[in-house]
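Board notes (copied after class):
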Amino acid sequence: MAEPEHTPDGHFVVINGRRWRATDPEIPPEPAARLRSLLMAARRDVGAALRADDAEAERDARARVHLAKIALGERGTPWWEQTASERRHRWQSGLAALDTRAT
């Protein structure tokens, strides 16, 4: 798969003409891959909950999506406005929280 276009400052990716906040490039490869995996699992769980009309499962899955997006730096305080230690704490604590909530 081709790498998406980035804005010149690297803060956003451009997909179909729309800007989306880029993942924090300082997250080491292994934790970043785990976070993406947990994000995709949570997204699949949102779909399953919607198909099952299970509001509680949907809320939980959407909360996990949100946690993963924050940990990846795609939501919350922009990663380029955080110190290196704040960035590390963000993805480490997000990963820990997601690990405890994994289904």
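Comment from the instructor: Residues 29-52 form the longest helix (24 residues). The chain has a mean pLDDT of 95.
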